[in-house]
Amino acid sequence: MNEEYKKYQDEAFxxxxxxxxxxxxxxxxxxxxxxxxxxxxxxxKSIGVKPxxxxxxxxxxxxxxxxxxxxxxxxxxxxxxxxxRQITSVWYLTAALSVLMxxxxxxxxxxxxxxxxxxxxxKISQNTLGEVLPEDxxxxxxxxxxxxxxxxxxxRHSEKGYWKKDNPIAALVATYxxxxxxxxxxxxxCLISIFMALIYFFGGELHSMWALxxxxxxxxxxxxxxxxxxxxxxxxxxxxxxxWNDPDEENASRGAMDNATGIALSYVVTKYFKENPxxxxxxxxxxxxxxxxxxxGLRGSMAxxxxxxxxxxxxxxxxxxxxxxxxxxxxxxxxxxxxxMCRFDKDLEKMFKDTFAELEIVSKTGGxxxxxxxxxxxxxxxxxxxxxxTFAAQNPMLTYYYHTFRDTPDRFEPETVxxxxxxxxxxxxxxAKFQEENGFNGVNN
Length: 445
What we know:
Layout: H1 3-23, H2 31-46, E1 52-58, H3 67-84, H4 90-110, E2 123-132, E3 141-148, H5 156-160, H6 168-205, H7 209-215, H8 218-226, H9 230-242, H10 256-275, E4 284-291, H11 299-307, E5 317-325, E6 331-337, E7 342-343, H12 346-358, E8 368-371, H13 378-383, E9 387-393, H14 414-437
Parallel strand pairs: 3-4, 3-5, 5-9, 6-8
Antiparallel strand pairs: 1-2, 2-4, 6-7, 6-9
C-alpha cells in the first residue's frame, strides 16, 4: 500500500477503534447508536460535507431481536401439552399461540417484514447522509457507499464458542448444536400442538371422518404416549432459544468488524474523493450513507429506499454496501440474500471479482458467497432499483466473534481494512468506466 492510501487506512481503523472501544455496543435505536451517528456527522463536517439526518421509527424487538420470545412460546406450549392430556381443549389455545408465533417468526425474523412492528415498543433510529459532488456540481449518476451503524445483541451460544475456538467441531456444536436443537424443539412442539388441535376439533366437534380415522391410528396413540415425556425435552430446547440473545444492552456486540469497518470504509473513500477532486469519477456524485438499525431487519436501508424512491438517489444509482471487512482470508462479494430471495447486481459482482484478481486477493470462499441466513442492506437497495452488492471480508460460518461482545478491533489487522479501501476504489474505477461506455446511462441499459 502506498503512503497516500495508508493515511486513509489508519483513519478507518481509528474510527473502528473509537466505535468499539469508546462508544461500545450500539443496539438499534439506542443512545450509543445515535452517538456513532453524531460522531460520523462530525467527521463529515470536518471535510466540508454537510451531514443530513433522516429519522425513522424502529421496533428493535419486533424482528430478530425478539427471537427469545419464540423460546417463551415453546415453553408455554410445552407446558400446555402436559395440561392438554387432561383438558383437550387446551390444545386450541396452544395451537392459536403457535400459529401466531410461527407467522411472526417467518414474516418478521426470516423475511424482515414490518407487519408486526406496531405491536412492539418503538424507538427512533436514523440514517446519516453526506454527498460529494463534482467541482461543477453536475452529475449523471450516483455511487452510494453504505454501512450500518448499529450492532447486534450478544449471541450467547456463539460467544461460548470462544472457549473452543481451537477445536472447530466442538465450536460448531456449541453454536449450531444448541440453536438447532432449540429450534427443532420449539417449532416441532408448535406443529404438534396445531396437529392435535385440528384432530380434536374436527373429530370431536365436527365428527369429521378423516379426523376420527386419524384419532384411531397407531400413530396417534404413539404420539399421545410420546407426549408424556416430549414436553420436558422441548422445554429444555426452548430455554436454549430464550438464552440466545442476551437482553443486557451493555453485553451487546461492540461491532468492530460488524459493522464499524463498513462505516469507516464508506467514510474514508468519501474523504479520499473530497480531498482529491481530480480523482472523482466523471459526472459522478458520491454519497456516504450511514444506515441505522440493520440488525433488527434492514430497517435503515428500507427507510432510505422509501424516503428516496421518487428522487435521483434511486435513479442511475449504484450501491457498494460494505458489511464486515476484517477476516483477511475471506474477501468476498455477497451476491444474494437467500432468505430474502433477492439476487444482487451481476455487473457489480463481476467488478468485485475482477478487482480481487487485480489485487491478487485469494479467498477461502472463492471471492463470492450467498448470504445463507438473515439479510443485508443490498436487498432494500436492489428492490428500490439501485444496482447493489455487499462487499465483505468475513468468515461466513458462525464464529465466536460474530454478533458477540468479542467483536473487537484487536482481533484483526488494520491492513485488512486498508486492503478493503483499495478494493472499493478499484470497483469505483470500473463503475466509472462502465458508465462512460454506456453514455452515463448504464443502469437503464
